[in-house]
From TrEMBL:
Gene3D superfamilies: Nucleoid-associated protein YbaB-like domain (3.30.1310.10). It comes from the Bacteria. InterPro entries: YbaB-like_sf, YbaB/EbfC. It is found in: Cytoplasm, Nucleoid. Residues 1-24 are annotated as: Disordered. Binds to DNA and alters its conformation. May be involved in regulation of gene expression, nucleoid organization and DNA protection. Keywords: Cytoplasm, DNA-binding. GO terms for molecular function: DNA binding. It comes from Virgibacillus oceani. Pfam families: YbaB_DNA_bd. This is Nucleoid-associated protein GCM10011398_29820. Residues 1-14 have a biased composition (Low complexity).
């Protein structure tokens, strides 16, 4: 019985190392989303940090700031969703088949 427990602990440590490596790789990834046909582009890393915002000059209209704000929000929300989806896809492989609440 002790052998099984030791083996299980080794398996858990191995899985933990793989999870940490996958998480580090995710943090290094770049994500990009745009709105308004490319008028606003938002770049972020896997840590959900916005690294750049690009705005085409022709979308800047002092009489319609609200449209620009909407485009920035749309692109930002899209890039954050991409990060969440990729994180769930990548990290989900480690939790498949585990009883709920174990991790």
């Amino acid at each position: 019985m002790k052998g099984n427990m030791g083996n299980m602990m080794k398996q858990m440590q191995k899985m933990q190392k793989k999870m940490m490596k996958a998480q580090d790789e995710l943090h290094e990834m770049s994500f990009e989303a745009s709105a308004g046909g490319g008028m606003v582009t938002v770049l972020a890393n896997g840590k959900k940090e916005i690294t750049d915002v690009q705005i085409k000059e022709e979308v800047v209209d002092p009489d319609d700031i609200e449209m620009l704000q909407d485009l920035i929000l749309a692109a930002t929300n899209d890039v954050l969703k991409q990060i969440d989806d990729k994180t769930n896809e990548t990290m989900g492989q480690f939790t498949k088949g585990l009883p709920g609440g174990m991790f």
